[in-house]
Structure formats: structure tokens, C-alpha cells
Specification:
heterodimer; A: 11 helices; B: alpha+beta; Sulfite Oxidase, Chain A, domain 2; 5-stranded mixed beta sheet; 22% helix; 20% strand; elongated
Chain lengths: 212, 326
């Protein structure tokens, strides 16, 4: 893929990932977030985190099924958006739900199981975001980088469980996320067992140059 | 594809035009994808709005200003807007999405509504709604409403004390509890087609709670008949308890000897109790009940014991362990 195309692919995700945020800000400034804007902001940023996590994890299976290798160009930006919305989600909770109180935020986070699980998801994304640069991929080497980035599974699974746990009774939406995630994880599991063992070390899906 | 050497110089696109076209197409793809994402977002997050034009209730009496505040009949806090009260509802019979209840409940037909009052009473009766509403003149009651989900409103209800109805049917001595039931009709209440909760919705009060003057049967808000999303045509309001105790669209009231089953408590007994008194010191297992988001305000408010009605109702629970009987 040409440098130019890669830049366009990145721009495409950059713009589309910002659309939900732009609409959130627009609706907020026009008082159109409904009766409980605080709750809406927390919920929506959380949903966006899950959506981007799942999109990130869908890249590799989609690429393999369709043979569209250029899809890989989208992955880093999608993952960074998942982290970005996850941070926003936490900031909304910290400011709107806990009124900027560090002590009550910490107390709640330790006390409530769904918050422990949610924090796990967010914390698991930190090393992924930090090591998302080409320089870091080179420094870690493809194999170690890939191993580290399996934390994405932890983040996605914990994120969906966190959502499931805080729902009052209607678990249909969390179950939709869980189903999609199960399909994506199932695909990887099948791939893993089908793949001839020695090949795992050499088939590199991550090369700093194409990943740029 | 043509062999490169067969393309004459006339046919080669001018590089300037070629790159322009490419940029043009890319800009188009970018714009189209952004619009598609925006539309998808809007589909998932529709902006709820709508007018309430239910009939105005005539002859509403205002409680005397001097006694109203002391009795808890009128809270001196800013009232939540009609728009918010009617577009942020927990009413799973229509939708589990609070913003989706109003559109799902639009057009709910309450013609010929009847309420059966039965059980351990001297004079059981099936009331036509109009006859039931004539039992006592409609009064304005401005109450705090605290949802178990830690948000709250201030709502100007129109209704009268449940005790007025109970007096008419004359409870027997062994009637210790009052059990309530919502309409069961999946054709009119689409949410009942899914098994999110056990239908019909049922609630209950202890006799002294039911007889307390603050406990009302409400038929209106803001001087208008209740819109469907708020529990038309008649619902219960118990201002010192979490909102889910305020059962909506009531068809049956039964006086009984033993504590009746209540929907949320049966669904998750460790999370929702029979009493469900608002209590900032007893957390929901999954979240804190110490503070609340008042709808229409920016910061959070501390939650008050018995939702601020301790003076009026505290004596009902004297000596009870509210941690065990939550």
C-alpha cells in the first residue's frame, strides 16, 4: 500500500471515530441529551469504548476471511479510539457521577464489583496505547508485541462483563456485545488450533512498516 | 488492460487532473462515511421529545399553604419539567429504555378502565375509573421522587390519599397488607411480550403505609390526566419509597393477611426489598444510594433519609432494623 493510501485510511478512521464525540458535544450544547445528560454521557462513552474495541478485534478475522489485507491499516486507529473513549468514560464517571472527588471515586471503584471489572478493562488498554507506535513495535519485536497486545482480549471481555453487571434487568444489549465478542474470540480459537504449530513463530501480522 | 506501450500520449490523463479526481473521490468517501456514521449514531440515540396533551383535570384543590409543607404535601424545591417527567420513565411494560417509553406508550387506550378492590374487605367492588376518581376531590401533591437508580425528580401529582378508597371498601381486621397489580395485556403493553420481568407487575404496602396520608392514588401530573408513559390512568405514589414501589396502570387492589410478592423483590431479593424505603445509608449492592442526580440539575444532591419525609413517616418503622428490612 502506498504511503498516500495509508494516510487516507488513517484519516478515514480519525474522522469517523470523532463523529460520535462531535454529536455528543453538539447535543450537549443544545440540551438534547435527554432528561439525564450525565447518565447519557457516561453510558454513551462506555458504549463507544465497547464498539471500538470490538471493531479493533474484528479487523484480523475480517482481513483473513475476505483477503482484504488493507484492513490492517485501520486497526491501530480503532484501538486508540477505544482507549480514548474509555478514558472519556472514566472522566465522565469521575466528574459527573463522583463530583471530582478522588476519595469517593477510589472508594466506589474498590467497593463495586462492576467498577473493578471496568477498571481492569481500562487499565489493560494502557500498555496497548503506549506501545502502539512503530518505534515500540520495533523495540519489542513483533512476537513480544503480539503477545502483549493479547491484552485486548482482556479489555474486551472485561468491558462487556462490566456492562452486563451494571444493567438492572434487561440484559439484551450486553448479550449482543457478548455474542459478537464470542464469535470473534471463537474465530481466533479455531484459527489457533488449525494453524500448523511451527508457523506461529514466523507468520508475522505485525510489521512496523506496513502498520504505519 | 491495454499494454502500456499502446497508450498514445493523447490518452494519458494529465497528472494534475488524475490527482484532482483522486482527491475529489477521497473527499467524497470521507464525507459519505462520516454522514453514515452520524446517521447510525442518531438511529441508536434518537432525540426524544413530544407534547403532552391529555385532558386538564378540573376542580383540583390546593392543600392549605400553612399545613401543606408540614404534612409533606408540598416540597419547596424546583419542579422537574413536564417534558422530563414524561420522557424519562421506567415502565418496562412498554420499554426498558427510559427514553423509549413515551413513544412506545403513545396511544395506549384506557377506555373502559376498571379497578377491582377486593380481598379482606367488607365491601369489595369493581370500580369504573370515573367512579373511583369521584371518591375524593383531586388534590395537588408536590413530591420528591427518588428512583432506585439514584436519580430523582420533583413532581406535581394530582390525586388523593389511598386511605380514602380503603375507607370506602372497609378493610377487615385481619387485612395486614395491600397488594396491587398492573394490567396484563401484551397486545397493549408490548414490553410484556418479553420476559424481562414476571408479568403482571405487582407491588404491596403494609396496612399502615397504605393508610398514611402521603400515600396517594395519582391520576394526573401538572394539572393534566396522566399520560400513558407515567402510568395512566391511575397509579400509586409513595414518596418516601423508591420509585418502583409506585405501581402504574393499576387494575387490582387486594387486601391480604400476609406480605404479598412484589415484582423487583422477587426478581432480585438481595437488591430490592419489600420496604424499599429511600435510605442513603443502605447501598444497593451494586451502587451507592448516598447521593442522587436530580433531573435538570448539574451537580448531585445528597439523598435524604426517607427521601426527606422522615418527620412524617419515621414512626412507622420505629424499632425496625432498616438494614435487614431494606
Amino acid at each position: 500500500m502506498k504511503e498516500n493510501d495509508i494516510r487516507f485510511a488513517k484519516l478515514l478512521i480519525l474522522v469517523n471515530g470523532a463523529v460520535p464525540l462531535a454529536l455528543l458535544v453538539w447535543d450537549q450544547s443544545h440540551h438534547r441529551l435527554g432528561a439525564n445528560p450525565q447518565n447519557f454521557l457516561i453510558l454513551t462513552t462506555g458504549m463507544m469504548t465497547l464498539i471500538f474495541l470490538i471493531l479493533t478485534m474484528a479487523v484480523t478475522p475480517l482481513r483473513k476471511v475476505t483477503g482484504w489485507n488493507w484492513l490492517i491499516q485501520f486497526r491501530r486507529m480503532l484501538g486508540l479510539y477505544a482507549f480514548f473513549y474509555g478514558c472519556l468514560h472514566f472522566l465522565c464517571f469521575f466528574s459527573l457521577d463522583r463530583g471530582f472527588s478522588v476519595s469517593s471515586t477510589l472508594t466506589e471503584m474498590v467497593k463495586r464489583k462492576y467498577l473493578i471489572v471496568g477498571s481492569t478493562a481500562l487499565i489493560a488498554m494502557i500498555p496497548l496505547a503506549v506501545t502502539s507506535t512503530n518505534a515500540m513495535i520495533k523495540r519489542l519485536g513483533g512476537k513480544r508485541w503480539r503477545a502483549l497486545h493479547r491484552l485486548a482480549y482482556v479489555a474486551a471481555v472485561a468491558g462487556v462483563i462490566h456492562y452486563y453487571m451494571q444493567v438492572k434487568a434487561d440484559v439484551r444489549q450486553p448479550l449482543v456485545f457478548a455474542t459478537v465478542l464470542a464469535v470473534l474470540l471463537g474465530y481466533r480459537w479455531v484459527e489457533y488450533w488449525r494453524r500448523p504449530k511451527p508457523a506461529t513463530a514466523t507468520t508475522g501480522t505485525v510489521k512496523p512498516t506496513t502498520e504505519a | 488492460m491495454k499494454e502500456p506501450n499502446k497508450i498514445s500520449s493523447r490518452e494519458v490523463t494529465d497528472p494534475a487532473v488524475y490527482f484532482n479526481r483522486r482527491t475529489f473521490i477521497r473527499a467524497g468517501v470521507l464525507a459519505a462515511s462520516a454522514v453514515a456514521t452520524g446517521v447510525a449514531y442518531r438511529r441508536l440515540n434518537p432525540v426524544a421529545a413530544g407534547k403532552v396533551n391529555t385532558p386538564i383535570i378540573q376542580g383540583i384543590t390546593q392543600p392549605a399553604a400553612t399545613t401543606a409543607n408540614a404534612a409533606g404535601f408540598r416540597v419547596d424545591e424546583p419542579e422537574t419539567s413536564l417534558e422530563d417527567i414524561t420522557h424519562y420513565n421506567n415502565f418496562y411494560e412498554f420499554s426498558t429504555d427510559k427514553e423509549g417509553v413515551a413513544p412506545a406508550a403513545a396511544g395506549f387506550d384506557t377506555k373502559g378502565w376498571q379497578v377491582s378492590v377486593e380481598g379482606l374487605v367488607n365491601k369489595p367492588k369493581v370500580f369504573d375509573l370515573d367512579d373511583l376518581l369521584k371518591i375524593s376531590p383531586p388534590e395537588e401533591r408536590i413530591y420528591r421522587m427518588r428512583c432506585v437508580e439514584a436519580w430523582s425528580m420533583v413532581i406535581p401529582w394530582v390525586g388523593f390519599s389511598l386511605s380514602k378508597l380503603l375507607d370506602v371498601v372497609e378493610p377487615l381486621n385481619d387485612a395486614k397488607y395491600v397488594a396491587f397489580q398492573t394490567l396484563l395485556d401484551p397486545t397493549r403493553m408490548p414490553g410484556q411480550r418479553s420476559d424481562v420481568l414476571d408479568w403482571p407487575y405487582v407491588e404491596g404496602l403494609r396496612m399502615d403505609e397504605a393508610m398514611h396520608p402521603l400515600t396517594i392514588l395519582a391520576s394526573g401530573i401538572y394539572d393534566r390526566a396522566l399520560p400513558p408513559q407515567d402510568g395512566a390512568p391511575i397509579r400509586l405514589v409513595v414518596p418516601w419509597k423508591y420509585g418502583f414501589k409506585g405501581i402504574k396502570s393499576i387494575v387490582k387492589i387486594k387486601l391480604v393477611a400476609a406480605q404479598p410478592t412484589t415484582t423487583w423483590s422477587a426478581y432480585a431479593p438481595n437488591e430490592y426489598g419489600f420496604y424499599a424505603n429511600v435510605n442513603p445509608h443502605v447501598d444497593h449492592p451494586r451502587w451507592s444510594q448516598a447521593t442522587e442526580q436530580r433531573i435538570g440539575e448539574s451537580g448531585r444532591r445528597p439523598t435524604l433519609m426517607f427521601n426527606g419525609y422522615e418527620e412524617q413517616v419515621g414512626h412507622l418503622y420505629a424499632g425496625m432494623d432498616l438494614r435487614a428490612s431494606f
